[in-house]
Every structure is written in structure tokens, then in C-alpha cells.
Amino acid sequence: MQRRDFVSLFSSASAAALLGAHAPGWAQASARRAASAADRNLILVELKGGNDGLNTVVPYADSRYHALRPVIGLKPEELIRLDAQTGLHAALSPLLPLWEKGELGIVQGVGYPQPNLSHFRSIEIWDTASRSGEYLQEGWVARGMKAGLAGRSSFTTEGVLIGRNDLGPLAGARAISLNNPEAFVNQSRLAQGLDDAFVARGKGNPALQHLLQVESDVNQAAQGLRAERYSFSTQFPAGAFGNGVRAAAQVVASQKDQEGKGGVPVITLTLGSFDTHQNQLATHANLLRQLAEGLAALKGALTELGAWERTLLMTFSEFGRRAAQNSSNGTDHGTAAPHFVAGGAVRGGFYGQAPDLDRLDSTQNTGYSTDFRQLYASVAKDWWGVNPDSVTGGRFEPLKFLAT
């Protein structure tokens, strides 16, 4: 392999690997949790663009909701009623079996103090678990690895990002960005067989040594993902998100025969754009349908693999939408919104408080009742068994949506 080919390979986002140094962390984790956390999967689903929470989890019994949204407000008969106050958008019907089985949690009013309404800045805040005016480089997942999770297993790689080129919550971890495992494995084969002279020239050259280390880690990760393609009986939806879900399932399947490895602890998926400034109804319904069908298929595939009980799904988005519709029958950038958690170990039901539409702030947005870092604290403490404070950068009370 020629040097120019090697460098070109690693400029490709589909085979990018970043290295991070990790040290053992929170010694107080229980032995049971420490033994099992390395085998667990966390699948993060980004609702890119800012999902409209009020038309996702709908307070249909609140007259103020209908007053604020005379055109785009959803009528009770158009919804899946979860109780006397709240309903799900009808496009989310594939998630109803999860709700009925107690495997779907809805965390309401998720946000943070002094919210930023810029797409770019707000997703940085979510990715790094920072305060509104704090700028951090390291993702919250990478901090979880450093807090002790990485020391418990020889992971194939610490994360796989599907459909997202930047590392986001995995910034600072050993992570790979790919659209599907097969393409990654095919590309990684090109990195094998570097000539001895090229390797020798790397000695004493820090930049080249770094490239060689990246090459080594990519090959190691590729070997871990090189299991025979699993043939699922689950039917995956068509489209980009459905393909991403299929790829995520294949990554989990590749872990089945790994001896002495913890597989891939974190996978991210991306769906969007939810930036529905105009003519929202049809666009939003289509995106929610893709989300629900994709998550339902993922549940089916993971059940086939025997991995559903050790998998936690969690959605996130940079912000919600404004309470009132705009003049274009859409919604503008908002603040708090609900998010979903699902999995075999999830205690289903509502968490947090429904938005109070009679108490909007000066920007006519809803207040938050659940800090998004409480979700991360829950993952750190109850899923990974690491010190949640080291992940969130402060004390945030974990939610109790995990039966672990």
C-alpha cells in the first residue's frame, strides 16, 4: 500500500477512528453492575433539527394547546390516547406494543437552563453535557469511558456512529463513523499490508506514528465487525433511517462471537431534519413514522439476537419547538421537549412533568422540568455503573427508568 493511499483512507469519514486515553474510574460500582455493564448496548437516536415535542407527545386535553395551534394542533381522535390527558402522534403507533409491555418510557419537559436556540450551539451543549455558557471539547460518552467503563472490557471500538460524520457525544473516544459495517470492513482491508520501509520511517515521526496507531485501531475494529452477515427475519423499513437501523443491528450481531471483548457499547443513529418552520404536519408525520418503524424493527432484530434485555435506546435533539404555531403553519425553535427511552430493562411510563402551557417564558417557550443531564446521569449510574458526576460535570439526580 502506498503512503498517499493510506493517508487518503483515513481522511474518509466512513473509516475515521479517534483515539482516547482511558483510565479506571469509579470504584464504588457494584460487582454485579461492573460485570454486566461492558456487555450492554446504548443506542442513541438523534432527532436532528429540533423535534416538535408538543405534536409528538400531545397534551390533547389542554385547551391552551388547541388555542396556541389552531391549524397544526392535533385533535383527540387523531391520536393514540395514553391516558386522559396525553396522546401520541398516530404515526408513532408502531411503538404502542412497547408502551403496553412497559418497555417504553416518555421523559417529559427535557431541557436545560438558559437555553440556546442555535442548532449548532445547542447540539454542542447536548453532546458535551455542558452548561449553556460552557464550551467543552469532549463528548459525554467519552467521559463515561474514562470514568471506568473502558477499563472493564477490550471493546472492539468504543462507539459506532451511523449517519453522522462528526463524533458528537463520542468526541474523545475510540469511535468509528460508518454508514454500514460492510463498507467499513471493505475499506479497512485496504489499510492492511503497509510496507516495512513505510513503517520504519514512522519511527521517530510523531505524526506518522499517530497515523500508524490509527491504522492499527481501525484494523482491530474491522476484525471485530467482520462476523458473517446475520440474516434477520425482522423486516427493516426502506429509506436511509431504515438502512441505518439495519446497520446498527448488524453491528450488534457482530458482537455475538467475540471472545474476551465487550463488543461496541455505544451506537448512534440520526434522523431528520425536524426543523419544521413551515407546513409542518405532513413532514413531521413522515419523520415520526420513520422513527417508530425503525425503532420497532430494531426491537425485533435485537430480540432475535437475544440482545434486547441488554440494550437501552434513547432519543435526543438539540431543542424542541415553540409552543405556538407560526404564520407558515410550522413551528420555530423552542426549548424543552419529551424524549423516549426504550429497552428490555426500561420501566415504562411517564417521567418528568408535562409542559405548562399557561406559563410560557419571555420567548413564548415552555419551561423545562427535567435537565437533559439527568438522562446522562441515569445512563452513567444505572446502565454503566460509573460515577455520574464525572459524566455530567456536576450533580444531577438520575431518573429511575431502568430496572437494574
Structural commentary:
The structure is a single chain. By secondary structure, the protein is an alpha/beta fold. The chain is 33% helix and 14% strand. The protein contains 13 helices and 12 strands. The chain has helices at residues 3-10, 31-37, 63-68, 96-100, 119-128, 140-146, 181-189, 196-202, 206-224, 240-253, 280-304, 372-384, 388-392; strands spanning 41-48, 57-58, 79-81, 87-89, 104-111, 159-162, 175-177, 266-272, 311-316, 337-342, 349-351, 370-371. Strands 1, 5, 6, 7, 8, 9, 10, 11 and 12 form a 9-stranded mixed beta sheet that branches. It has a 3-stranded antiparallel beta sheet with strand order 2-4-3, with no helix packed on it. Helix 7 crosses helix 9 and helix 10 (240-253) runs parallel beside helix 11 (280-304). The longest helix has 25 residues, at 280-304. The termini are far apart. 50% of the residues are buried.
